[in-house]
Design goal:
Length: about 140
């Protein structure tokens, strides 16, 4: 544990209420049906997961609310997708109009290309983001 430099956490379940947490997968088990928010509804979704050996980070952004392009995904289906991609543990991050994905492949780019179509038609100005930097 002393090697951990950064961590991401979702909303955990509560022992005092029936509100579920945001875990999609726990130790290879699909928890999408009890994850929040609105697990059975199709929405734009964002998820992060790690492989069983902890060597692979999986980031997924699913568009939605755009007829003819994408209707979104339910949380059980998102958990199943994350399992298919190799996640052993995964959580549901902020979704809806906040679902956006940008990548920058080299340092000379000021900003990388937008690689999805946010449901609001443009980036939503929110203070919820996850950045990953891979050091050579």
């Amino acid at each position: 544990l002393t090697r951990i430099q950064d961590a991401v956490a979702g909303v955990g379940g509560s022992n005092t209420s029936d509100l579920p947490g945001t875990l999609l997968i726990d130790n290879g088990r699909n928890l999408g049906a009890t994850a929040r928010v609105a697990p059975a509804a199709r929405h734009p979704r964002t998820a992060a997961g790690v492989s069983r050996d902890g060597r692979a980070l999986l980031l997924v952004a699913i568009d939605g609310r755009q007829p003819g392009h994408s209707a979104g995904i339910t949380l059980p289906a998102l958990a199943a997708l994350m399992l298919e991609l190799g996640a052993w543990d995964a959580l549901n991050l902020d979704g809806g109009g906040s679902t956006a994905f940008i990548s920058r492949l080299n340092r000379s780019e000021a900003q990388g290309p937008q690689t999805n179509r946010p449901s609001d038609g443009a980036f939503r100005p929110v203070a919820v983001h996850l950045g990953v930097r891979i050091r050579p």
